[in-house]
Amino acid sequence: MKKVSIMLSFLILSVSFSLGQSNNNLLSGNNTDSTDYYYYKGKKVPLIANADKICVSIPKDSKKISERIIANVQILNTIGDKSFDIFVISQSDLKKLTLFDFWKEDAKSVLISPSFFTTSKEEVFTTPYLTVRLKKKEDIDILNSYTEKYRLKIAENSPLMPLWYSLSITKDCDKNALECANELWESGMFAASVPDFAVDNLLCSNDPLFNQQWGLSNSSTIGVDISASAAWNYATGNGVKIAIIDRGIDMCHVDLAPNIIDSLSYDTDNNVSPSQVTGAVTAHGTHCAGIAAAVKDNGIHIAGVAPDAKIIPISNCLITIAQTPFNLAKGIVWAYQHGADIISNSWHYSPGHPEIEEAIQDAFKYGRNGKGCIITFAVGNDSTNQISFPANCNDTILAVGAIDSIGMRAGYSNYGAGLDIVAPGDHIISTLPGDQTGYNSGTSMACPHVAGVAALILERNPELTVTQVNSIICSSAKKLSGVNFNVTKPYGTWNNEYGYGLVDAYSAVTNTPSLTYIQNETITGTRIISSDNIYVGRDVTDRKEYGDVILGQGNITLKADFIEIRNSTTVPLGTTLTIEN
Fold this sequence. Notes:
alpha/beta; Rossmann fold; 3 domains; seven-stranded parallel sheet; 21% helix
């Protein structure tokens, strides 16, 4: 099934001007130099002007203007937004509009902004927004002074990331959003200032095929699978929550509904719960969710990698809609603040955004009570030797590439520095909306396989940090036949196209340190309790009823590499307590 979507991740170059004056350069069709740029992490990133296309943004309350544009020119693409109708049209059609009598008046309300190509030749469209980050919350007065100076409007402030503000251009602004973003950064008064970019965010290839769940157990090419069946003897993801940030999930799907918590979902675009199923390609999120955690042994459809894990749906349009990075960052923060253990992301956002990076870093720092969320990202479907953003923005991310059913890198899968692991991604069957199933291909499909394996690990040992989980996944990967893993990295040998190898669920769970909780128990007599990790105390886990622990009277031996005993534990007089490792 072909899945194509365009998502906001571009530059914001909205300009308010009347045709024939400040926008003559846009009408000339000759603006093809590469003098345009924006700032990212304090450095200038060049852009190449697109001489063929232009963006026009019309306030929602000027519906008649939108209707006239739609009636008279070809709309190449529509960028969704709550405040503006944003259309992509050709430069030639923009010139055509200037010939109509109505345009002289309409142009006073229309914001016109150029489109660009990145240096990697990816097409980006512009919207009327930019985002800024304050250095500290007290700098709101500085922000207000700059919005007044540049005649900008504060569109939104995220309560989840309170230092970030989304600003919009107004018809009274005499600069475009790119110029405003650059000048605000150059002022030195802000921690970040970037235009709002939009790109094709869904990492799904266009190869719909075949009819078996080979990624879990491959009968055609032995060993080219994740060894799920063997892993399920040890763990199925019970007690673990996987957030799927995507275009929404069919929460009523018969093979997903038992694993979805009705009250735990979020729509980033509208700041509401429950999540929504959005966009033209509505099956993408449902397909990814099924790969990660469809129900097993119910006699229906498929089995997910972690069939007893719970799914947290977090929806984002992931197609042409303004303020995409602002909303995606909110989704990541909402996920870790609402108990997600794993955050699976089958999308990209080119060419990068610091707000998304900060949200990811916060999830690593604060998620899972400080142990860090495990975050998987698809690396992209461009068949290039550079993985996409955000997969490439933080070494703690698990960056996932795709292989086919004979163990070869899928032709579309990106590769290169930063690639951690590969997983089944080609011709993958999974759930589709309306209680259906179907096939899809892409690094989008590979990513939730790894998220599911992370859930199996965390069921076995929920005390592991994100770094420990990543280490288990990478160091236990299968070294595919015929591939030369000739580079030594922290988690073992590595290959430019396959990372550390094919994710191996069985090897991962069997290499996960064993864990024993002693909670709400009285232990007497002669006892030897052995495990890799032992936690003792009233509230060391939420998997048991809370209660104090009494060790003794008797001879009690705890043998483990790591032991934590909390002060809710009593050792009566006459007890011999021995700690060994």
